[in-house]
Structure formats: structure tokens, C-alpha cells
Amino acid sequence: MADGINSERGVDMNASDVRRTALLVNTVILALVFGLMGFFHMCGADFLTLFSIPTAAVYVIGYVLIFSDKLDIYVWMIYFWLTLYMCITTLCLGYGYGFHLYCFSMIPVMFVTEYIAYKLHRRSMRAMTVSCVIAAFYILCTGYVACFGPIYERDQKYAAFFWIFNALIVFGFLIYYTNYMIRAVILSEKKLIEAAHVDRLTKLYNRHYMLDRLNSLPADSESFLAMSDIDNFKRINDTYGHNAGDEVLKTVAAKLRSMCDGCEVARWGGEEFLILSAEPLPYGVEMLEKLRKSVAGETVSFNGTEISVTLTIGVAVRESRQNVEEWVQAADKKLYYGKNSGKNKVVN
């Protein structure tokens, strides 16, 4: 049950993961800045060539902020400068080069950054406000170019290459961060389901889940219920302590998971477990006997002490017109009978 959640652990970033990602992104962008500086120089766009110098300095400062764990300041600085860079390059060269496209990746990335800041208990990045500011600057700079044209009228032979290059970068960011956000939402949903349906100590389903499951079965279902109880559990707690009792519960739960093949098992309450199985009753009782013998044949180790554990199990097949509550009570009555007639047995 919990394995599916653990398999997606990589989505759930911690501070060191974020720092490594920031370093990688910072390095890639710094390399792009130097590459574009050479292109601007080749095109004779002197102002953009000079503007690349403070741009490179911003990303060098970014390394200092990342290593100093001042990631919020780093994000604010990078977003301010990226917006400025997008506007200036678009005003100077026009939108035929695709620099204006960066705003379309900046906005969703900002919301992902807001989510990560929340997960890491950092200050809010005010994603909505920042996104509105970026959109406003985008409209202003592209509107200016649409009305008056770019500042530099240059040969457009490189425009198609840079439009495609910038579009690929933007789509790369959009795909990566959208995928990250969707996976994070799915992971959060799974964690909520686990919290609602899974017992934290034993990792078995809880009573709430099992009741929903039983109510979803058709009235003529041939499934059987088995109510299992750890014998003399109070004595274990009183003799060895509640931590020992918890260890016994976890050990028995592991046995139930491994030996009740094809069953759904829930911690019903305290030391009681409810087993739902679609197996024909003779095979089901045989399976439960093997479970009982396996539990009785091994001890639970706790702080150098070996604790003997046994189970009593009551089995009930659903009768016609029997509701879920009556069905569970029937299994419970069989369990009660087993408890009062010697324990460590399966009663059907």
C-alpha cells in the first residue's frame, strides 16, 4: 500500500535537492548568457553585448546566494533580471528572435517555486503578483515592438535559428515543471489517501477503509470475513510495555500481509484485525490455520526478550439479507467463542 507512494519519493524535494537544481539551472543559464554575448557582438548589437556583462555578474552572484542558502533572494533576483532581459532583448531585436517567449515559462515555473517554498517552509514567493508583473512587461515590450518596430534593424538570417532555439528552451521548462507539478499533486493525493485509509503503525488498511470496502460488495458476495485477535494482548502490554505491544502488532500485521494472499486486511481496532477474502471457505480456513500456526510457532523479539504470541480467529460467510454490520458481528461472535474455549484457534 505504501510502496506506491515511496516509489515517487523523488518528486518530494528537500532543501538539498532544490539547491542542486538551482545550481544546475544557474550554470546552464550562465553558459547561455556567454553564448548570446558572442551572438550579440557578431550582430553588432553593442548595447546587448554590454548588457550581457551585468547579466553574467547576476548569475555569478547567484552562486553565492545558493551556497549561502538564500534561495528566496536568489529567486527574486533571477526573476527580476530575466524579466528585464526579456524586455530589453525584445525591444532591441523584436520578437522574431523569440526572446519574448521566456515569459511563458517564467510564469508556471514561478508557481512551482511557490509550491516548493511552501513545502520547505520558506517565505511565500508571491507567485500571482510576480506573474501579473511579468505579463504586464510582456504586453508593454511586445506592444512597443508591434507599434514602432525593434530598436536594431538587423539581418534576419539568424532569427529563425534563435526563435527555434528559444522556443525549445521554453517548451523544455514548461514540460519539465508542469510534469513536476502534476506528479507532486498526484503524490499529495496518494499521501492523503494513505492517511485516510492506512493505519500508521501497522501499515494495514484501517477500519474506515474496510467499512467502505464491505459496503461496496454486492449482497450476494461469496467472500468471507475473518476477525482475528491477538490473545492476551493486555498482558503483553502490562508485562513488557506498550512499545513491546507495538512491536507485536507490527509483526503480526506483517504476517497477515504475507500469508493472507489475495486478501484485504485491516486493523479493526486495538489488537483486532479484519480479513476479507474471496477464497472458497475450505481453502480460506486452511490459509488461516497456516497463519495461526505460523504466528504461534515464532516469537517476537523485543529488547532481548522473546515474546510468545497466538491468534484466535472467527470466520463468517455472509448470509442472505445480512447487512455489513450483522456480517461483522457474526465473525466477531465466532471469535468470542474461540476466546472462551481455549484461544489460539480458528472457529468457522
Detailed description of the structure:
With 348 residues, the protein is an alpha/beta fold. It contains twelve helices and eight strands. It has helices at residues 3-6, 15-43, 46-67, 71-93, 102-119, 127-148, 159-197, 207-216, 233-240, 242-259, 281-296, 324-339, and strands at 205-206, 224-230, 264-269, 272-277, 299-302, 305-308, 311-317, 346-347. The protein has a six-stranded mixed beta sheet, with helices on both faces. The chain has a two-stranded antiparallel ribbon with strand order 5-6. Helix 9 packs across helix 10. The longest helix is centred in the middle third of the chain and has 39 residues, at 159-197. The two termini are 29 Å apart.
Radius of gyration: 32 Å
Question: From the helix content, strand content and strand pairing, which structural class follows?
Answer: alpha/beta
In percent terms, what proportion of residues is strand? Answer: 5-15%
Tally of separate helices: 12
Shape: elongated
Fraction in helix: 55-70%
Q: How would you sum up the major sheet?
A: 6 strands, mixed
How far is it from the N-terminal to the C-terminal residue, by CA? 29 Å
Number of strands: 8
Give a concise summary:
Helix content is 65%, strand content 11%.
